[in-house]
Amino acid sequence: MIKSWMVIAAIGTLVAGLGSALTGGDIRWFNRLQRPRWLTFERAIPIIWTVIFICGGWSAYLVWEADPGSQLTWVLMVFYLVLEIVTISYTPVMCKLRSLTVGTIIGATGGLLSYLLAISVWPISTWAVVLLIPYMIWSPIGTYTTWAMVPLNPEDR
């Protein structure tokens, strides 16, 4: 029998893989951009996001297991999926459009959605909310970093 955590992990991996595939060579544009001097932690960003996605999947698992298959649980699973799609779309959409402003908007949207999701799952599982905290902390940092890159790269607004 397929376990719920397996399905959640598979869907998360599929969405992340699609995002990576859609980025392709466009990432070269982003890699050539100027960064703020204080951005000393850029190498850690993939690790940070890996932890965030694992925590998000675990949070979704806790919500699912609290009331498997109910209408509310399905709605919340769609909410988790939308949050991941928005998050994963940051790189391919920003790079395809070559716009840091678009990246900032996508980042801010993900941050807002993470707070709304946390509020939505609070009555179901406090631990599910705790597992969303890394996203809620990191999203404003990542969004601010993208926003801070705009004046350093005026041709890529």
TrEMBL record:
InterPro entries: TspO/MBR-related_sf, TspO_MBR. The keyword Isomerase does not apply. Its main location: membrane. The keyword Chaperone does not apply. Keywords: Membrane, Transmembrane, Transmembrane helix. The chain crosses the membrane at residues 47-64, 71-90, 102-122, 129-150. It holds the Pfam family TspO_MBR. It is a multi-pass membrane protein. It is found in: Membrane. Belongs to the TspO/BZRP family. This is TspO/MBR family protein.
